[in-house]
Automatic annotation (TrEMBL):
GO terms for molecular function: serine-type endopeptidase activity; tripeptidyl-peptidase activity. Residues 75-396 form the Peptidase S53 domain. GO terms for biological process: proteolysis. This is Peptidase S8. It holds the Pfam family Peptidase_S8. Keywords: Hydrolase, Protease, Serine protease, Signal. Gene3D superfamilies: Peptidase S8/S53 domain (3.40.50.200). Residues 1-27 form the signal peptide. It comes from Actinocatenispora sera. PANTHER family: PROTEASE S8 TRIPEPTIDYL PEPTIDASE I CLN2, TRIPEPTIDYL-PEPTIDASE 1. InterPro entries: Peptidase_S8/S53_dom, Peptidase_S8/S53_dom_sf, Peptidase_S8_Ser-AS, Sedolisin_dom, Tripeptidyl-peptidase_I.
Amino acid sequence: MTRSRPAMLVAALAAVLGLAVVLPASAQPARDADTGVATHRACATPAAGKHRAACLALLDTAADGTALSRADAAPLHPFTAADIQSAYQLPSALLGARQTVAIVDAYDDPTAEADLAVYRAANHLPACDADFPCFRKVDQRGGTDYPAPDDGWAVEESLDLDMVSAACPNCHILLVEADDPSFDNLGAAVDEAVALGATVVSNSYGGPEGNGEQDYQAHYDHPGVAITVSSGDTGFGVQVPAAFPTVTAVGGTTLFQDGSARGWGETAWAGAGSGCSAYLAKPKWQKDRLCHKRTVADVAAVADPSTPVAVYDTDNEPGWLAAGGTSVAAPIVAGVYALAGNATTVTNAYPYSHSRALFDVVGGSNGSCGGGYLCQAVPGYDGPTGLGSPHGIGAF
């Protein structure tokens, strides 16, 4: 597949993707069954029943767990901000300037602001500077007593910052760092983000469903604030907080350039989470027939690490990375909500009544589920991709 991209950015990415990266030893590289692309989870998976989450960033790696060499990374053509804007037909007008998108993650990314500046400059996005103070970082209490750094979560934070910037270059971005990935502290960080004026909150993490998850739902229920959550990266199955009916659960796609009128095509990504919640009530706007409780997902965007995005992070000195996971999709959709500028007046039911303003994703599967649409991308609603991916801002 051939993808267009600015010549200067191609040169920059080609230069920096050759740098070796030492990744956390907490997770071993895995190989995508569909593409053969080796991936490495940025964060360790929490044990069941611990009420903790893992970030959902996936890094493309060599077999030994280091970042891809320049030669290995080049065929993947990691997507730039311009590619994301083109694929989802996002408007180039100065939209989103009065919107604040909060990103909630755990632990500290000490180089978040500097890394974001490099990404925005390389992608020809407006700088966050004194003239346009579009970046702020706080702890979960709104102060500057940041938690301990963590290499894996730092990659996640950089990914989230970059994807919100790509989708909504003129948005203000608030990074709220929770003390740790417990749902108590992540939920408190969401509450603080809303208290500080965020109109959209992006959450690129998840943990297994379990008894007691309902205790955390109130943290993700803020009328007048759009809350996006990654659906998961392990295929068919449901995670929280994506299962909460008060959020927009964002599934994942494989995105590629083609000869269609749109210029891009999408299928369901094999790793995208989907299915029926075991505990949480079905919202009244969901009408699918096989889930008596909440169905995941609602919408989707690119997540396949074989069609990755370019991310810049230097907390562990990696520089440019090729990344995937539904951690990519949730902040993109958060940025689209902000572009639309309607978050204070719409609910997460809104896409269901405006599904014609989405790209319907057909084809691909994330596992075997005994019921086609819950794990296969079919015309109309399905589990892995929900109602579809953004086609401009009309569904948000």
